[in-house]
Amino acid sequence: MTDYIIVGSGLAGIAFAETLLQHNKSFIVFDNNSQSSSSIAGGLYNPVILKRFSQVWNANKQLELANSFYAVIEKKLATQFDFKIPIYRKFFSVEEQNNWFTASDKPNLAPFLSTTIVHKKYNGIDSPFGYGEVLHTGYVDTITLLTHYHEYLKSLNLFVSDTFDYTAVKTFDDHIEYQNRKAKHIVFAEGFGMHSNPFFNQLPLDGTKGELFIIRAADLDLDVIINTSVFILPLGDNLFKVGATYNWEDKTNTPTAEGKQELIDRIKEILNCDFEIVEHFAGVRPTVKDRRPLLGTHPKHANLHILNGLGTRGVMLAPTLAKDLYDFIENGKPLDKTIDIKRYAIW
Ligand SMILES: Cc1cc2nc3c(=O)[nH]c(=O)nc-3n(C[C@H](O)[C@H](O)[C@H](O)COP(=O)(O)OP(=O)(O)OC[C@H]3O[C@@H](n4cnc5c(N)ncnc54)[C@H](O)[C@@H]3O)c2cc1C
Predict the structure, then answer these.
(1) Could you say which enzyme class this protein belongs to (predicted)?
(2) What is the arrangement of strands in the sheet containing 239-243, beginning at the earlier edge strand?
(3) Quick one: pLDDT at residue 88?
(4) How confident is the model at residue 347, as a pLDDT?
(5) Cα–chain-centroid distance for residue 130?
(6) Contact 341/296 with Cβ under 8 angstroms?
(7) Could you tell me if the CB of 6 is within 6 A of ligand 1?
(8) First vs last C-alpha separation in the chain
(9) Residues near 301 by Cβ (< 8 Å), separated by ≥ 6?
(10) For ligand 1, is residue 208 a contact (CB within 6 Å)?
């Protein structure tokens, strides 16, 4: 009997897998490569919601855990994927500068917003009003993390590249059976793919499509992430990741002409140098109506659990949520009411 089956190996699934490994639990992971959200994500982590000047929910706890969690994996895989690099908010007016200073006075934002306006000149960008620097930021190169982590799981025989067949699940009081396997628990972490899961697809996972580019801009010299209506993230070799769009209607993983035009327009608001589009990606973020994750246990099947709803911030959230779900299942530690699926009376 295996302790766990995990369905999905995006940021959520691998965070749970790593948590299990750290507690010497046995498991197997299924993934069918049907969702692209984690692999194409910008990967930025930023404790401040710059649009509204508010702190990300539970930011301190999430950042602290994410830092140590990814550092442990980097060491284990002997690969760097967590890059600590500042995020600069470009100011377009004196009013924006003033709003920044007002926000940086708030006790919960003060640790994260520098009070010095940066007047650095970057080739390729005009910024007469300067930039505000967000502290404790960076990005996780998600494709590097996922590729290496999947290889690692494969080397341990813990990874199955296959579609999980929900109709083959048999539930019992103290275990489940799936094809020729027995497990104590299943954790479903399928991102937007949850809609195919008959056990949990009543939950209000809206999904928000996002598109992003890799561009080449030989004249752009940038050693920080610029964030305005889109972010521009330097990758080296004159390459930059730029994103992302938000579309609440289209739920496909296909890049569109509209998304392309929107990104081009946004880039032109920031850059005054030439650029060419090298790649164009799309994916659906697993967003929830109330902007809180979906964690918990199926009300009728005590061995079926969900780890979903990471929304727009999977990088920062995944380690904390994996830990919360693990503590809930194994140690009976209650979930915060705001993330527990019990808040939806749908069954
Ligand atoms: C354009 C874009 C930009 C983003 N930028 C950022 C950012 O800068 N910072 C940030 O923190 N977050 C960002 N995000 C959000 C982040 O990507 C998500 O929060 C995160 O990827 C969600 O991870 P997940 O593991 O829950 O879901 P997913 O990444 O969707 O993973 C689900 C996995 O389950 C698998 N699966 C589904 N159904 C089945 C099945 N039946 N059988 C087997 N396998 C199955 C899929 O193949 C997939 O691998 C961005 C997202 C997008 C789309």
Answers:
(1) oxidoreductase
(2) 131-134, 87-90, 225-227, 231-236, 239-243, 208-216, 276-285
(3) 96
(4) 66
(5) 29
(6) yes
(7) no
(8) 29
(9) 171, 176, 199
(10) no
Angle among Cα 170, 174, 179 to the nearest 5 degrees reads: 30
For 274-307, the pLDDT digits (tens) are: 999 999 999 999 999 999 999 999 999 999 999 9
Find out whether the peptide bond into 218 is cis, omega within 30 degrees of 0: no
pLDDT score of 345 more than 80: no
Domain final residue, candidates 285, 304, 335: 285
Same domain, residue pair 247 and 336 = no
- Residue-range definition of the domain harbouring residue 102: 86-136+208-285
For the chain, the helix, strand and coil percentages under 3-state DSSP, each to the nearest 5: 30, 30, 40
Residue at 64 is within a domain: no
Distance 154 CA to ligand 1 centre (A): 20
Write the residue with the smallest CA distance to atom 16 of ligand 1: 314
Task: Name residue 186's beta-bridge partners.
Answer: 5, 304
275 inside domain? yes
- In eight-state DSSP terms, residue 93 is S
ipTM for the predicted complex: 0.99
Mean pLDDT score of the chain, rounded to an integer? 95
Q: Using the 3D structure, point to which of 240, 265, 285 is the last residue of a domain.
A: 285
In a domain, 51, yes or no: no
